[in-house]
Amino acid sequence: MTDYRIKSHPILIDESDATIPFYWQEKAFYAKPNEMISSALIAQGIQVFRHHVKDHSPQGIFCANGQCSQCMVIANGLPVKSCMTEVTAGMRVEPADGLPSLPEDFELLPKVDQFPRFVECEVLILGAGPAGLSAAIELGKLGVDVLLIDDKNHLGGKLVLQTHRFFGSTEAVYAGTRGIDIAKILETQVRELPSVQIWSNSTAIGVFEDHVVGVYRDQKENIHVKPQVLLVATGARERSLSFNGNTLPGVYGAGAFQTLVNRDMVRPCDNLFIIGGGNVGLIAGYHAIQAGIHVAGLVEAAPQCGGYKVHKDKLVRSGVPIYTSHTVIEARGNEKVEAVVIAEVDQNFKPIPGTEKVYDCDTLLIAVGLEPVDEFLQVARLTGMTVFAAGDANEIAEASAAIFSGKIVGNEIAKDLGKEVREVPADWLETEEILKSRPGIVVPEKYIEKLDGVFPVFHCNQEIPCNPCSTVCPRDLIFISPEDIRHLPHFDEERSDECIACGRCVAVCPGLAVSLVDFRKRSQTALVSLPVEQNLVNIAVGADIELTDTDGAALGSYKIEKIKTVTGYKDGTRLLSVEVPTAIAKLVAGFKLIQPSQVKPFEPESAIQENPHDNDYICRCERITAGEIRKLIKLGVKDINQIKAVTHASMGSCGGKTCLNLIRRMFAAEGVPLAEVTDPPVRPAFVEVPVKDFIEYSDETGN
């Protein structure tokens, strides 16, 4: 069987071997230490984990974050979410097909004569992502008694999935450093603080009226924690999308794809298509390229991509077609994704008949926005508990903003506890707002007029919070306003002869949007150096490479003169140099790697309908279609609890975490104001806990 593990990556190095034996349907395989079941299976090319009991539809991984239930399997006789369950030696894994049956003989639960372990602390932090870690560091420095928990076996949250360098402020949030390295920096800092206790593989399972939080630790112990203050830093979950075939194996959330590729170094596909032009979708597309995966295209329903233009530019320069004002209307395949149908949309975001295009692909990545994981926050507020929120659980923004918001909230919590701390400085709040700001307008690129010497060219032409290039120049030749790092960088032309061509500004740029142009010792040509973070397997000195400008327009093919590392940047970024005519030297911004996919004819029998297809699945767990829900809305139902009672929508293992937002969108599409819609109660917990672990005590009779 083909091994789908990533053997070569420009940024990541994984020297661990698959040495843990386990069985899938009685076939022997090997997993890596600490590897989740889902990743171990996909590494063997297994995409279908089970078939749904209701309609026998194939089910596979979707979120890889425990927020849905599509990846459920039977492991050693118990139903578990494969993305959250670590492979153990000798584990026997089977598809969760059909309904489980109770054994004829079973052991009585043991008598328990004591309450669950009780722990008190000043601050309990839910989530060890960028916000939770930053808050813990701030509190730990003040000696506050902190318990920091996270449901993963590592710290850092989504930081551990980010191989790109971060935007923002170098001084405030480590801009210019890769997310995976920021996670290590924050973890090192928090582990050095004696007043901070860390529980990994631990998740909150309930917030109770007596202000106690139930914590399920290491999948074996239910512990009661009573903090003086609760901080919810649980991040965000990805939104789902309704279209025909949206639950096929191979339809992933962007986080699931990044988890497989960047955390576990598993290549889940060969040919990827992306829905969503925000930063998440654009970044995931580039991560795919780094992993050697072909990206067939990207669609964005809005007239323009909502993410940073430099992220979009990285894709178009590589040759990825981006279709704005387009959407996906169908994923095709039997047991897994085999093709995708896209179409143009009108100003009301309705697909336009006759504009359909069909692309072959084996994976469809959904990146259509995030929503806060804030259920515990809402429950804690209802109980009157002292609770704060930070990061995406409070407001969706970039990870750099989450780092800084955690710092601010940590300071606010310390003040609430009566610690002697100063008021949050005004410049902290200003920095937070800058880091959370949306991209500015796109302006025409401006180039230095001179055609001699050596100097950098900036291909970023949209104001975003970012300043690494100005902080690494050893001669201080690059300037960005310290008052507002959203301003575009400028090179000091009057001192241009001081540039030493060190290439640091090229290597540090998170957007890969700086080139170095060298006119010295050449006539009618210039040596242009570009950042390269792609796999060098197909990029070598002496080979021809097709150059592109900022927006992906072809500039011709030229020979690679040299590839070298930059002093201080031996973490994957190299400089690739080509000699080009003077006339195009300043225009060169990147090079093409992706060969275009063939657009296939569209079969008219799958024509676009006015409404979303009635057979589109809204509730993944219970297999409830759009048609079933729309029928009730048209009958006048405005209470989602009634829809839940009739259809069982939101009653599955995910507790409505993937379908409720889609149901609300259906009300809006039918002209029902959301203010008139009644939401159902939402279950905060999203982890399965055996009943035996909830038993508190027994009396003398064994009850």
Give the CATH H-level superfamily of the largest domain.
FAD/NAD(P)-binding domain
**Strand element count:** 35
Number of helices: 15
Give the radius of gyration. 26 Å
Q: Determine the strand fraction and express it as a percent band.
A: 15-25%
Assign the CATH architecture of the largest domain. 3-Layer(bba) Sandwich
- Give the CATH class of the largest domain: Alpha Beta
> What would the CATH topology of the largest domain be?
FAD/NAD(P)-binding domain
**Main sheet properties:** 7 strands, mixed
The gross shape turns out to be globular
Parts with pLDDT < 50 across at least 5 consecutive residues: 697-703
Q: How many angstroms separate the termini?
A: 52 Å
SSE class? alpha/beta
Please tell me about this protein's structure.
- Strand 30 (544-548) and strand 31 (554-566) form a beta hairpin.
- The chain has 703 residues and is an alpha/beta fold.
- Helices cover 20% and strands 25% of the residues.
- The chain has 15 helices and 35 strands.
- Helix 2 (130-141) packs parallel to helix 4 and helix 6 (279-290) runs parallel beside helix 7.
- Mean pLDDT is 91; it is low at 697-703.
- It folds into four domains: 20-99 and 240-366, FAD/NAD(P)-binding domain, CATH 3.50.50; 118-236 and 372-436, FAD/NAD(P)-binding domain (3-Layer(bba) Sandwich); 454-591, no CATH class; 612-703, BFD-like [2Fe-2S]-binding domain (Arc Repressor Mutant, subunit A), CATH 1.10.10.
